[in-house]
Design brief:
Blueprint (H helix, E strand, L loop, with lengths): L1 H35 L9 E5 L4 E6 L8 E5 L3 E2 L1 E9 L2 E10 L2 E11 L4 E8 L4 E9 L3
Antiparallel strand pairs: 1-2, 1-9, 2-3, 3-4, 5-6, 6-7, 7-8, 8-9
Length: 141
């Protein structure tokens, strides 16, 4: 019988914890776009390495209209079908779609993190139909 009483208490505690986080979330979220909104999109320029596999994403020719040049290496060149960036709520987002042998529409959806100078997000691996959390660090010049 005790177990049945503990489950509702744990549930109530989790709800209260979630509620208290929700109360403070708008203040934190409001601060992020203001500081992130000042990020120059040219910070995307450069070679980025995925530490978990050595894949390289090179970004260049960052245009105000959202276009950008991109190259991808694993370790050989993989054809980039589409690459673009945008800014939403002060956060810089990067989208890269690959179309090549073993890359039939694989996609990166990344966000630039100013604090860590990293690109973080997801990679959709089209061959297996799976999505992974990924990070890119800036390659040393």
């Amino acid at each position: 019988m005790r177990q049945k009483k503990l489950v509702p208490i744990a549930f109530v505690l989790l709800m209260l914890l979630g509620f208290s986080v929700t109360l403070y979330a708008p203040t934190i979220a409001a601060d992020k776009p203001q500081s992130a909104g000042k990020i120059d999109e040219q910070r995307l320029t450069g070679r980025w390495v995925r530490p978990d596999g050595g894949y390289i994403l090179e970004l260049k020719d960052i245009k105000k209209d959202g276009n950008l040049g991109a190259a991808y290496f694993n370790p050989r060149t993989v054809k980039v079908f589409k690459a673009e960036w945008n800014r939403k709520k002060g956060i810089i987002n990067v989208f890269v779609e690959l179309r090549d042998v073993n890359y039939p529409g694989s996609r990166y959806n990344l966000q630039y993190d100013l604090k860590t100078d990293m690109l973080k997000g997801t990679y959709f691996q089209a061959v297996h139909g799976e999505t992974y959390e990924v990070e890119f660090v800036r390659a040393e010049q």
